[in-house]
Protein: Aspartyl/asparaginy/proline hydroxylase domain-containing protein
Organism: Amphimedon queenslandica
Amino acid sequence: MSLITSPRRYSLLLHSLVLSLLLSYSSVHVDGKKEKETLHRLPITGQADLVFKVGDNPCKVLKKYCKSLQPRFTYETCFSQLHPVAIQQLSQLWEKVRERLKVDETFFIDCEPIKYIGSSNGFSPGISVTAAPTTLNNGGSTATDTRNSSGIISEMLTYLKRAMAMDADALQTFNTRRNELKLTDSERYELYRKALLLLPNNLFVVDQFGLALMYIDYEAPARKLFSNAVSRGMWGNPLQRPVSKYVPGLTSLPWHDKTNYPFITRLESGYQDIKDELLSNLKERRHLFTEEAENLHVGGDWTELRLKSSGLGFLKHTEYFPKTMRHIENCGQDFTSIKFSAIQPGTHIRTHTGPTNERLRVHLTLIHNGGARIRVGTEWHTWEEGKAIIFDDSWEHEVIHTGDSIRAVLILDIWHPELPPSQRIVH
C-alpha cells in the first residue's frame, strides 16, 4: 500500500504541502514543561502533521515519522515521498532554520551516513564523520603533515561566506584560490561538505560536493545527492549539472549530430593547416601552453592555449596562428571561446561538468594515434584525426588516455541553437 494511492490524492497532498509553507515560532507548555519551538509544519493528507522543531535532526524526525505509519504504509514508500518534499521546503527556509536544526550533509543524501574506514577507497556507509582524512589521493599526491588543511578550509569558507553577502571580490578570490591551492580529495570533501550546509541550493556547491564524494569512490550517495537535487528543480537530469547557469527548456542531448551543424565541415577542411600551426608552436613557443588550472586530472599532463576567452574576446596569441584564425573566420560561426587542448598518455580527466547548458562544445581532432576516449553522459566515444565531435559539456563527462602519444584538439564553443539571441550573453 502506498502513502499516496492515486494521482488525485498525490496532487492534493502536494497542493496542501505547498500551501502550508509557513514558519511557526510558538512555544506551549505541557504538564509544566516548555515545548520546543516549531520551526516548520508539514501537513500530510489523512495523517498527523510532520513537525520539525528547534534542535531536531531532520533525518531522525523523518525516519521516526515514517516508522510510526507502519504497517499501514511501508517505511520505504513514506520516506521516498516525504524526504524530497522536506528537503525542498526546508532548503527554501534555510537561512532561518539552518542554525536551529541539528542538520548535516546526509540530509541531502537520503539520510544515509558516511564513515571513513581507512581503506584505499576512503569512505563507506557507517557513522557520519566530522572531518575527512588527510591522506586521500589527489593527482598522485597525498597531503602531508606540513599542510594546514583545516586552515585552508577555513580560509575558503570565509571567502564563500563573504561571497554570500554579495562580495564579488570574495567570489573571485574563492575561485582563484581553489585553483591555486590544488585541494586534496579529502580537503575538497570537507570544504564542500561544509559549503553544502551553507548553500544547499547553489548549483556549483551541490555539484562539487557530489564530485568530491565520487572522487573518493563513494558514488552511490553522490548519485542520490544529484537525484534529490533534480527532484527539487535544480537541474533537469542528474547527469546534466551545469554549475553556473541552468536554462530549462533547451533540448538536452549529451552528444549532437555534427551533420546538423554545417560549419563543422568547413572547420574540418582546415584540419591540416591548424595541425601544422599547432605543432610549430608546440616546438617554438611551448611556454605559451599552460597547465590546466582546475585540478581536474589525475596522472599524465594536460595543457592548453586559449585563442579566445569567454568575456575577454580574442587574445594576443592569435598572431601565432594566422591560418587557424582564417579557417575559424571562414566558418561563419560565432564561437564564444576557442582553445587548444593537449593531454599526454596516462592522463585521466576526472568526471566533471561545464558551467552552462547555453552552449555546445566542438572538438576538432588534430593529433590522435589511438588510446584516448571520452564519456559524455553514459556514452563513450573517441577521436579521429581531421574529424570533429560535438557535445553538450554541461553533461557529466570524463576523459581517459591509455595510448602512447599525445592527443590534441582544437576546442570551440557555440551557443545552443535554441537559445534566443537576446539571451546570448557571455558571462
Observations:
- The radius of gyration is 25 Å.
- Residues 1-28, 117-144 have pLDDT under 50 and may be disordered.
- The first strand starts at residue 29 and ends at 30.
